[in-house]
Design a protein that fits this description.
heterodimer, A: Ribosomal Protein S8, Chain: A, domain 1, 3 domains, 3-stranded antiparallel beta sheet, elongated, B: 7-stranded mixed beta sheet
Chain lengths: 497, 560
């Protein structure tokens, strides 16, 4: 709030005039800084329609520092003339004066002085006029008195060029009475208090209007991580579709369950040091279901169950190597093996969303660990059409309706299909995930009945999340380096809208 | 997935028609390929080495095509064209034949006992009266490289050597010798080297140095000689310069040495089937006799055709279509699997050619039928599998707690399960040996040395990375750590943890204490010494303010 005294004075002034008044004039007449008047105007405006103030800007001419000096002491050329005695003055002496240089050339062009170059003892200057009219000073004096309007534009511009005058823009308010004009001001209340209600004083009070332009106060709250919010949604979708969650809380897996049980040969590139994290401690797994292990060895090295097999020397040492699981399908294999040990087969639908690890080269979309989403259905007589149908339903729940399938290769599924959806934004088909029908060489050694088909699909959790939240670099989403502001600001996750 | 790059115009010429990029992309998609990139040599050089280097390079358009990893028969232009032409029913799949030489004995490759110690298998064949052009020759070299990188597993399983048969004379001997005893002029070198010298020469070779490790530590190195003692090759490293092939080579001797015989046979079959179309008598390959140390002999290439019988009903049931037996036989024939309906009208006899080593089970045949039918023409159906969903109790509880921790004003962090030893030990003033941590043997950087044993280090790193954020920071994470556990089959287990951190200018122990009380309240655990929970000072040496540190993150819970 501006100084109350000034505010009241301003109101009294406004009351006295019929039309209105200019804030600059008020400042001049009260002898206060214009900014103080502006402050008073602002605080009156905040009180409602006490006054109305219209901003205007006006231009006017002002003397520069040099201009002021001339108005006071005369133009440089006039001062040159007055400083030259009758007998003249050496040019070098004149040039030493502060105004010498400019004054000399101007006085010369005005023909007020003359230069005798051949004079004995060096060039000497003599004055040619006794009296002179210092027009420059006169004009500046006019401007100083606020009578600049008497000068022609041309004259003003010339003085401006000599840097004696400058044109300044002055912002001011044109103040008139408002519809609620009063010379006494009442302070507006910001809050309704219990006391006001009790005393009834609220009836007389004026309340400050709310400022709807500003943001409200952010609530003091915690936030869930966006990737985990998306995980919750995927989990929800699987549960809605009747899928049971698999226990995937075992990051360390044996090569046996991660690869061999899936009929992935031991020379497969995925089992290379460059792709998979191997463990030095604990380096090896022990305890495998021995008869099953034997069937796995046989199907790899000799074939069987209708298969030619890979016909290579299958080694238990390779199968024993502990790794960080490269896919959650290792857990699916354990679950399907367990299912096969049941006395009677029952159809199942399984899902999981959990971390997997790859010893890959890192880039904007690849980290050494990410979350895999996986769905598995085991039943008698499932078809490739069923797999496509169920994928269609699954992706429908994510709001993705346009799907197509590309034949692909995967060591443990046959047929294998890559799932593509049409991206309206990118105007092209983008790959969403992989799917397929588990190979008989994987299922039959487990002991699952001949007619049982198992269909499955998988995708990463990070990719749809990055698309959903418009994040281009995976490091901005996952890991300790993420900006917490991103977590604070991320909206709720509705995948289907 | 291997990528094959072929010249577009050459491809279209061989296919007998042109396609727009979109049309060709569509054809690839249907056939299980992916048109990955349309580019030119000039583009590639300018992208990798700058525009100036690219000047003068060829701007012939190249198609880079992604090929499924098990389809070795599509790794060169010849194979791609054959596959697509048969698929489009423009031609019938050729029949590959192994033939004996007309007027002489077959070439012989004798394997000696010594190879057992290093690389025991070898197979060989001859392409007789072949005509190379520059394109064919380039493709021939390129296919060897593709096979080396894929099925040969970077030459560890199989290595291919090709030779101008007219420069050498059989019988050939595949043996193994101490490196000092092997001496020859290797491909593209001016003088002779011993094997030892070669190994050090190639240490700096950007291409060959990757293969040295395969035999480096062996007492003997594999080597193939002709009857005059000329070195054909020192597999899997380098061929001899003497027998190198050129555009003018008419008769090619191909040998594959291997640690895996099955793969060697496949690779040899691929090499000969892809290029025997350029022989005087197309699609024939001249046999070579391989003599084993025990005196056994075998003729190669195998070029085996195998027959499988399956029913139309099997395919219909597995795919979810109902096509006639005849139509299914036609579909399979389109995929280079020549098929005939048997007399009962229901069974189909399918012939698997030597090019389709990927077909090892009836389900592979079923997939080919589905591909030829068109995956996207298959009706999408809903399985009638009835199941009731169950959540994993541990995850259910974690989900519920996460919600309530956020409601308590804490923000969820998401940190990595892998970290450095330092993160879980030194930085928390612990000795690594007391952490029960699982160690990774092949981390590329220190960030992946161990699986975390605590969530705390990740949360502290999150705080450190967010020092610019307004205070206080309240963070939590519910996730798994990994601990060694000898009772498990793999010797380790996950352990679900909750960890929370309060970070402010003043310590605010009561804040984190209060959160723990709240968590206990949510879990219906009452404070108290008996069945309840209580806090006691830990001797934790965690760096700052040890007296105020208590181990919240050891409040582990299980879901039951």
């Amino acid at each position: 709030m501006a100084d109350t005294g000034l505010v009241e004075t301003l109101l009294q002034r406004v009351e006295k005039v019929d039309g209105g008044l200019d804030s600059q004039d008020v400042a001049t007449s009260l002898g206060v800084d214009h900014q103080a008047i502006v402050g008073a105007v602002k605080s009156l405006q905040a009180l409602g329609d006490v006054i109305s103030a219209e901003q205007r800007s006006s231009k006017h001419w002002e003397l520069t520092g040099e201009g002021c000096e001339i108005a006071e002491q005369g133009s440089h050329e006039a001062r040159v003339v007055s400083s030259i005695p009758k007998e003249g003055m050496p040019q070098s002496q004149l040039m030493k004066l502060a105004f010498g240089k400019v004054g000399f050339s101007k006085a010369m062009s005005n023909k007020w002085i003359r230069l005798d170059k051949g004079h004995e003892g060096g060039p000497r200057i003599f004055k040619t006029v006794e009296r002179l009219e210092d027009l420059v000073r006169d004009k500046l004096l006019l401007v100083q008195k606020g009578q600049a309007s008497q000068l022609e534009e041309k004259e003003k511009n010339e003085l401006k060029k000599r840097k004696l005058l400058s044109e300044v823009t002055v912002k001011s308010y044109w103040i008139t009475k408002g519809s609620c004009f009063s010379t006494t001001i009442t302070k507006q209340e910001t809050e309704l208090t219990p006391e006001m209600i009790a005393s009834g004083s609220w009836k007389e009070k004026k309340f400050k209007p709310y400022n709807f332009e500003a943001m409200g106060v952010a609530p003091d709250c915690g936030h869930l991580h966006p990737l985990m919010k998306v995980r919750t949604q995927f989990r929800q979708i699987f549960l809605e579709m009747g899928f049971t969650e698999m226990p995937t809380n075992n990051f360390i897996e044996s090569s046996f369950w991660n690869f061999d049980s899936l009929f992935q040969p031991q020379q497969h590139p995925a089992r290379d040091q460059h792709d998979t994290f191997f463990l030095s401690d604990p380096a090896q797994a022990h305890e495998f279901p021995q008869d099953y292990l034997e069937r796995v060895r046989k199907v790899h090295s000799e074939g069987g169950f209708g298969s030619q097999g890979y016909k290579y020397d299958w080694k238990i040492e390779e199968a024993q190597k502990n790794i960080l699981r490269t896919h959650t399908t290792a857990v699916s294999a354990r679950m399907l093996y367990k299912l096969a040990q049941q006395e009677k087969f029952t159809p199942v639908k399984y899902f999981s969303i959990d971390r997997v690890f790859r010893n890959e080269t890192l880039d904007a979309t690849h980290l050494a660990e990410f979350h895999q989403i996986e769905g598995v259905v085991a039943d008698y007589g499932l078809t490739l059409g069923d797999l496509m149908g169920i994928l269609h339903q699954f992706f429908n729940k994510l709001g993705i309706t346009k799907l197509r399938f590309k034949p692909a290769y995967n060591p443990y599924t046959e047929p294998s299909m890559e799932v593509f959806s049409y991206h309206e934004g990118l105007k092209k088909w983008v790959e969403l995930g992989n799917s397929g029908v588990f190979r008989p060489e994987m299922l039959l050694p487990m002991g699952l009945p001949e007619g049982v088909t198992v269909i499955a699909w998988g995708l990463s959790l990070e990719r749809p999340t990055m698309i959903k939240y418009g994040i281009n670099n995976i490091r901005e989403l996952v890991g300790h380096k993420v900006n917490l502001q991103m977590v604070y600001d991320s909206p709720v996750c509705r995948l289907d809208s | 997935m291997p990528t094959v790059s072929v010249k577009r115009d050459l491809l279209f010429h061989a296919l007998g028609r042109t396609y727009t990029d979109e049309e060709f992309d569509e054809l690839c998609f249907e056939f299980g390929l992916e048109l990955d990139e349309i580019t030119s040599e000039k583009d590639i050089i300018s992208r990798e080495q700058g525009d100036t280097k690219a000047e003068g390079a060829s701007d012939v358009i190249l198609y880079k095509i992604d090929v499924p990893a098990n389809r070795y028969d599509l790794l060169c232009l010849e194979g791609l064209v054959r596959g697509l032409q048969v698929f489009k029913q423009k031609m019938e799949a050729p029949r590959y034949r192994r033939v004996s030489p007309v007027s002489s004995e077959p070439q012989r490759l004798v394997i000696t006992e010594e190879t057992t110690a290093v690389r025991p298998h070898a197979v060989a064949a001859v392409l007789r009266n072949i005509t190379f052009t520059q394109e064919r020759y380039d493709s021939f070299i390129e296919l060897q490289e593709k096979l080396h990188q894929n099925v040969c597993r970077k030459r560890t399983l199989v290595a291919i050597g090709t030779h101008d048969l007219d420069t050498i004379s059989g019988p050939f001997t595949y043996t193994a010798k101490p490196p000092g005893d092997i001496r020859f002029k290797p491909l593209n070198q001016a003088k002779e080297y011993t094997a030892q010298e070669l190994m050090s020469l190639y240490k700096t070779d950007s291409h060959l140095r990757h293969y040295l490790h395969i035999i480096e530590d062996k007492p003997v190195y594999p080597v193939i000689y002709d009857s005059n003692g000329i070195v054909l090759s020192m597999p899997p490293i380098i061929n001899g310069d003497h027998s190198k092939i050129s555009l003018n080579t008419k008769n090619v001797f191909i040998e594959c040495t291997a640690t895996d015989l099955t793969k060697a046979k496949i690779v040899l079959d691929m090499m000969v089937t892809m290029f025997c179309e350029y022989c005087e008598e197309p699609f024939t390959v001249e046999e070579t006799e391989v003599v084993y140390p025990d005196g056994r002999t075998c003729q190669y290439p195998e070029l085996a055709y195998r027959k499988e019988t399956l029913s139309a009903d099997f395919i219909n049931r597995k795919v979810g279509i109902s096509e006639s037996t005849e139509h299914i036989a036609q579909l399979l024939t389109k995929m280079c699997l020549r098929s005939e309906v048997m007399s009962d009208g229901e069974q189909i006899e399918v012939e698997i050619p030597p090019t389709r080593s990927d077909v090892i089970h009836a389900c592979d045949i079923m997939e080919d039928a589905a591909m030829a039918y068109g995956f996207n023409n298959i009706p999408r159906t809903t399985p009638r599998t009835y199941t009731v969903a169950n959540q994993l109790p541990l995850n259910k509880l974690s989900e519920l707690l996460r919600q309530d921790l956020a409601a308590a004003g804490f923000t969820e962090a998401l940190t990595f399960a892998l970290c450095s030893q330092e993160d879980i030990a030194d930085k928390l003033l612990k000795n690594i040996s007391e952490t029960r941590a699982c160690h990774i043997s092949n981390p590329k950087t220190a960030e992946f040395q161990v699986a975390r044993t605590t969530l705390l280090s990740g949360l502290l790193k999150t705080v450190a990375a967010n020092r610019k954020m307004p205070l206080p920071l309240r963070l939590f994470e519910i996730s798994d750590v990994v601990l060694k556990d000898e009772t498990k089959d793999v010797g380790a287990r996950n352990n679900r943890r909750l960890c929370a951190v309060y970070y402010n200018k003043s310590p605010g122990f009561e804040v984190i204490h209060g959160l723990m009380d709240r968590v206990m309240q949510l879990l219906e655990v009452k404070p108290g010494q008996g069945n309840g929970y209580h806090i006691q000072a830990a001797d934790g040496k965690t760096a700052w303010e040890p007296s105020q540190w208590f181990k919240l993150d050891s409040v582990s819970f299980n879901g039951n």
